[in-house]
Amino acid sequence: MDEILKDLNGEAGVKGSMVVTHDGIVVASALGVGLQGDLVAAMAAHAILSLISAFKRIGQTRFSKFILKSSYGKMVFVDAGIAYLVVVLDRHINLDATLITISGAAHKIQTQGRIAI
């Protein structure tokens, strides 16, 4: 899983990435310079748990992809089956091409079929 995150982080505009379980536990993390791991992890876990809670209220159990945009940058949350892939992006990045790469990384995580906590 670390290799998948490392390869993803090599893409232009990707500041870092992590894998978070459905209950908000970080199982793998590869964050770039300037990103505080505990802060990004807390934000990602809170966002995932809040989204899951909101979706349950409307009768849905999961989401496939969620994009959070801010003045600092963007975060993309992708369902990777066994967990969520969270990617932190530069605010000026064009998402079209990058989402293809992110989806590919999520698929690789999903096909691994297991995570170690």
Rg of Cα set: 13 Å
Let me know the CATH homologous superfamily.
Answer: Dynein light chain 2a, cytoplasmic
Straight-line distance between termini: 12 Å
Helical fraction equals 40-55%
| Main β sheet profile | 5 strands, antiparallel
The CATH architecture name reads 2-Layer Sandwich
Instruction: Detail the poorly predicted runs.
Output: none
The overall average pLDDT, rounded, is 89
Helix/strand-derived category reads alpha+beta
CATH class placement: Alpha Beta
Widest sheet: strand ordering: 2-1-5-4-3
Q: Which shape, going by the Cα principal axes?
A: globular
> How many beta-strand runs?
5
Question: Under CATH, the topology is which?
Answer: Beta-Lactamase
Our count of helices gives 3
Order of helices and strands: HEEHEEEH
User: Into how many domains do the coordinates divide?
Assistant: 1
- The percentage of residues in β strands lies in 25-35%
Q: How is the secondary structure organized here?
A:
Elements: H1 2-9, E1 14-20, E2 26-31, H2 37-57, E3 65-69, E4 73-79, E5 84-90, H3 95-112
Antiparallel strand pairs: 1-2, 1-5, 3-4, 4-5
Task: From the structure above, extract its key features.
117 residues; alpha+beta; Beta-Lactamase; 3 helices; 5 strands; 27% strand
Question: What do you see in this structure?
Answer:
The protein has 117 residues and is an alpha+beta fold. It has helices at residues 2-9, 37-57, 95-112, and strands spanning 14-20, 26-31, 65-69, 73-79, 84-90. It has one domain (2-112): Beta-Lactamase (2-Layer Sandwich). It has a 5-stranded antiparallel sheet, sandwiched between helices. The chain is globular and about 35 Å long.
